[in-house]
Amino acid sequence: MTVHIGAKPDQIAQTVLMPGDPYRARWAAETFLEGAELVNEVRGMLGFTGTWKGNRVTIQGSGMGMPSLSIYANELIRDYDAQTLIRIGSCGGMQPHVGIRDVIVAMTASTITSPSSGIFREMNYAPCADYGLLAAAVRAAEARGTKTHVGGIYSSDVFYAERPDLDEQMVRHGILGVEMEAAELYTLAARHKRRALAVLTVSDHLQTGEALPAEDREKSFGDMVEIALEAAFA
Ligand code: ADE
Predict the structure, then answer these.
(1) Is 110 helix (H, G, I), strand (E, B) or coil?
(2) DSSP type of residue 128
(3) Structural domains in the chain?
(4) CB 194 within 8 A of CB 82
(5) Nearest ligand 1 atom, CA 206
(6) pTM of this structure
(7) Is the torsion defined by CA of 87, 88, 93, 98 positive or negative?
(8) How far is CA 119 from CA 114, 122, 123, 196, in A?
(9) Which listed residue, 90, 188, 224, 225, has the most CB atoms within 10 A of its CB?
(10) Active-site positions, per UniProt (predicted)?
(11) Is 204 known to be catalytic?
């Protein structure tokens, strides 16, 4: 047990999927895993362990934002020896060719600050995905026919942004979408020599103002979960 995860040491798998929303962790575990067992409910941040095609997987909520994800990812890596960590979550689209429901496989995750920024001082560290996971996710997405974009995303500290000038520069520099967790996950994985990736579903669009209707969310998020699972065990 750790401060924030109540699972026994052998109750967490080496492969962990991390949605921000603990209820989505429960939905994904019930939908895609066999024999899913609740292994954590400290602070309501649900975690489940089961198997997918015979492979052991944990699906553990990360909460919203990099400080929250940092707590769970640190404990999963340092105390439970998680080797492969894949964020599954939603993001806001930032390019005209990126549509609602499309999947983004995040090659890099830019930030202004993250819980790790302090250690880099003047350096602009570039958090990046594990290439093997990234390539496997792209192959899985292509095989399913899911409309998928691969490139840079932005990990923000705020959902309600007040910097149109910053958005403009990101759009200009090809950033595909915005979310709030991946940069810290990539940085922690690099530090501890683990594999990390973020597979995201576009749930809203900053330019068009469109948003995914609630009833469509499950199917779109389901594609993302299966892409993540296929990548993890490719
Ligand atoms: N996650 C989903 N949509 C988002 C947005 N527009 N900004 C930040 N995080 C998000």
Answers:
(1) strand
(2) B
(3) 9-232 (3.40.50.1580)
(4) yes
(5) 6
(6) 0.97
(7) positive
(8) 10, 9, 9, 20
(9) 224
(10) 204 (proton donor)
(11) yes
